[in-house]
Specification:
By secondary structure, this protein is an all-alpha fold. The model has no long low-confidence stretch (mean pLDDT about 85). About 85% of the residues lie in helices and about 0% in strands.
């Protein structure tokens, strides 16, 4: 009786130890901040840069426009990814799938470049709203964030 109980406990211990040994891969990659964290970052930047209410309103308007444009691009990218995945899952040989998806992959690269260009334009429009002193402070904030 004792041997059965001990063997069951040993089996459970072995099974649970393998679960605890699992490395969580999600912690390795940076993720987009959530709503609350984004609002905290916005508040900290607003306080540190001493933004006026007019600047804050203009930044909100620019952010909404940027999010709409970026949403369209990301939606197209997701659609292309889905189409590419479906071609590979269709059961045709890999080399045929590579040939068939080459134009879609090229479009995906173009969409990525457009997204990067849009990000840069948004950053420039943000910096154009700032005064020279605020720009200098913003550059120090960026350096601090990159050092972390």
């Amino acid at each position: 009786m004792n041997i059965k109980i001990l063997s069951i406990i040993a089996i459970l211990l072995i099974n649970t130890s393998s679960v605890f040994a699992h490395n969580c891969i999600h912690n390795r990659y940076p993720q987009k901040p959530g709503y609350i964290k984004q609002r905290q970052m916005d508040k900290a930047i607003n306080e540190r840069l001493n933004l006026s209410s007019q600047q804050i309103d203009e930044l909100k308007k620019n952010r909404l426009h940027h999010q709409k444009e970026m949403g369209k691009i990301l939606e197209n990218m997701e659609d292309k990814h889905t189409k590419i995945r479906n071609v590979y899952y269709s059961g045709i040989p890999k080399f045929q799938a590579d040939v068939k998806t080459a134009p879609m992959k090229a479009e995906l690269v173009i969409l990525k470049q457009n997204a990067d260009k849009l990000r840069q334009e948004h950053r420039k429009s943000f910096e154009n709203i700032l005064t020279p002193e605020q720009r200098n402070e913003f550059q120090t904030i960026i350096k601090e964030m990159h050092s972390k």
